[in-house]
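User: For my dataset I need records formatted as: sequence, then structure tokens, nothing else. Please produce one.
Assistant:
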Amino acid sequence: MRLAQEPDLSMFGNDPFWLILLKAVFCFAFLLITVLICIVMERKVLGWMQLRIGPNRHGPWGMLQSLADGVKLMLKEDVVVKGADKALYILAPMLASVPALMAIAVIPFGPKDDPVSIFGTQTVLQLTDLPVAMLYVLATAAIAVYGTVLAGWSSGSTYPLLGGVRATAQIISYEVAMGLSFAAVFLYSGSMSTSAIVEAQDDRWFMILLPVSFLIYMVAMIGEAHRPPFDMPESEGDLVGGYLTEYSSIKFAFFMMSEYIHTVTVSALMVTLFLGGWRAPAPLSYWEGANSGWWPMLWFTLKLVAVIFFFVWVRASLPRVRYDQFMVLGWKVLIPVALVWLMLVAAVRAMENEGYEFRDIVMWVLGGALALLLISFVVDIFRDRSEQRREEAEAKEAEAPFDPLAGGYPVPPLPGQTLPPVPRRPSRADRADRATASVAADTPGPSEASPEGREGDDA
């Protein structure tokens, strides 16, 4: 039984300034190097999955392709469109990149009660931690969308504006589902501190204990990172390039880098919240020294790479969904399921804190689930009946003659009704044929000539 309590964060904030600076530089370098590897890995894995050749020109096995892309983008012409708001147009890429870098500060790479030695100084493998670290992560993730929105608005073009509006709606809907999946983790860990959440997974990962929250976050993080098949703000199929349409050179590189940094950040959050964080996986966890020293950083990095591979796998496997389907998934599926699941988790935690036995909790949970299924079954029956009555009424209306000028004003047809055929003006060829036929009909033939004419012919 674990009740909510203030986490012990006394080991943070005691490092000398040079060590804090060194750890901050390491976090920044870790993100950038992971992004470079992520881009190359994505292109290589996509080529392998799609049975084609991936990058193979720059460096051994094409491993320097990301570096070549960065140099190419920096050397390309930097264009600022004429109708853009220049200040916001230049500021938007930085607003998208900086918040994406901030969340890594509270991600633990190792245990807080087993520090390591860096140049003779004992320190924790984590830059810092907060009692509300996860709220800090959600806040930075929400700020990042301002860069996308301002990029779309300041470009002074239609397609970027639509991409910015889509990004706003997307971040609102999927941020709610993500927050609800986090709430279940808070209930079981008793804290919003990232180090405390990892410590709470000493016996079981939350992926096993909270499978519904894990699945909801798995979907929400793809939408949060604007990754295929949920890359609606930059969909080239209908928005050319979305909010990126009017950007080039280094500003375009900033946006692409922010997207991949966001991918790494949400993957690190998944590892921290649901995959045991820095803890060694099951076979290796039986080794006594697996979770001490520098080994936890290795386990964390391997889990992070596995989650990023999942991103690439989803991109290679699933086609892009329509925008309306994407929003329906967020508002009508993920959020209701997350709310029901959160209520269930809260009820179970309350019963555990009250001392109920495991058998009683299971019986109550099964009883509640059966009651929900029964209620949904009854609701479906009444819904089917109402839909059937509505269809019958529509069929009757369709049988009635449709008057498009009912009440003196033209009205559109209802479902099932059809407009009467519109009289069409005959074509020029048809009018010529009709005129020829009418002239031929008016001209008398030989048998219809006058008697005088026939007598003349006989003479």
